[in-house]
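Researcher: We're reviewing a set of sequences before deciding which ones to prioritize for further study. For each one, I'd like a predicted 3D structure that I can look through quickly. This is Acetoin utilization protein AcuC. If possible, include the structure in C-alpha cell form so it fits the rest of the review sheet.
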Amino acid sequence: MKKDCIFIYSDDFQKYKFHDHHPFNQLRVKLTYDLLRTMNALDDSQIISPRIATDDELFLVHDRAYIEAVKTAGEGRLPEEIALNYGLGTEDTPIFPNMHEASALLVGSTLTAVDYVLSGKAKHALSLGGGLHHGFRGKASGFCIYNDSAVAIKYIQEKYNLRVLYVDTDAHHGDGVQWMFYDDPNVCTFSIHETGRYLFPGTGNVNERGQGKGYGFSFNIPVDAFTEDESWLDAYTQAFREIADFFRPDIILTQNGADSHYYDPLTHLSATMKIYREIPKLAHEMAHQYCEGRWIAVGGGGYDIWRVVPRAWALIWLEMTEQSNISGNIPQEWIDKWQKHSPVPLPTEWDDPEDLYPPIPRKAEITEKNAQTVMKALYPIRSNRQKMNL
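Model: Here's the predicted structure for Acetoin utilization protein AcuC, in C-alpha cell form for your review sheet.
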C-alpha cells in the first residue's frame, strides 16, 4: 500500500449539518471512510486530522462582513432580512448552530491537504469534506457556505506561487470557483456538468471563457440531460487531456461531486459507476504527467449517499493508492453494519448492473450534441495548435 497519500478525516465533518431532511448529508464521508477501513485499504498512518481555517485564510476569498454574518447567524443572532442578503436562512442553505466553525473546518481540511502535498510530505491528498464549489465572495449558495477550493487555490498562489488547474466533475457547474478566478491567467478552471437549462445554478455555458487576462483559461462542457457513460467519458477525457497540455499546471485540484449517477435524486444524468472508475484514473495520470504527481482531490455533491457516494469516493482513494483493480463484491461486513440505517438496499457489488435503467430514447442525439459542445469548448486550443503547426 502506498504511503505517500493522505486521507483527511474527522468525525466533526458531521457538524456541517443543515437539518435531518436536507439533501446535503456528510454521513456520506463517514460511510466512505468506513468502507475503506473495512476493506483494510486505509490505515492509521495515512489518516490526517484537519485543522480549522483561520479568519485570515477565509479572507483570501471571502468578505469580512460575510464571515462575521456567518458567525452571528450560527449564534442565532442574525436578523432574517440581513441573513437573506448573505444567502443564509434559505431553503438551500438554512442556518444551523456553530455554522462558522463547521464550515471553517471543511476549508481547513482542504488546506491541510494542500500543505501536505506542497511541503513534499505526500504526493496525493484526499479531502472528502471539501468541494463546496458554489460559495461566493460574500454569499452562501447551493448548500455551500465557504468555498474551500477557492480558498485553497488562493492559498496555493500566495504561499507557494504555483499555477493551478481546477477540474470539477460535479453535475452542477462549479460557478463559485470559476467566477473567483475568472480574470486570473494562473488558474485554469474546467467544469463538466449537466447543462444549466434545467439544473442549478444555470451557468457554465460553453462561451464562459474568462475575462481580461484570464480570458481563455475557463472551460465549460455542459452535457445534455440523460447523458450516459460513453458520451460523458469521451467529453471528459478529450477535454482534460487537451486542457492540461495547453495549461501545463504545477498542481491539479479535482472536485469530485458524485451526482452525475443515474440514482442521484437532484440531477438528470444517466451515468453509472463506470465514470467514477475513470475520473480519478485520468486525474492521477495527468498529475504525474504535468505536476510531478501533485494532486489534491476534494468531495462535492452527491445525494444518493447510500448507493452511490461511498463507492464513487472510495474509488478515488483506491486509485490514489494504486489499489484500483478492485471488483466483485462490497464487503458484507460494511453492508451488514449500515443496511439497517439505509432506506434503500445497499449495493452488493462495486459495479452497477448493465440494466440499471431503461434505454435512453434520444441517445444518438444526446451523444452528437455533447460532441459538438466539446468541439466548441476546445476550439481555441485546437485552432491555436493548428496555427502553430502551419
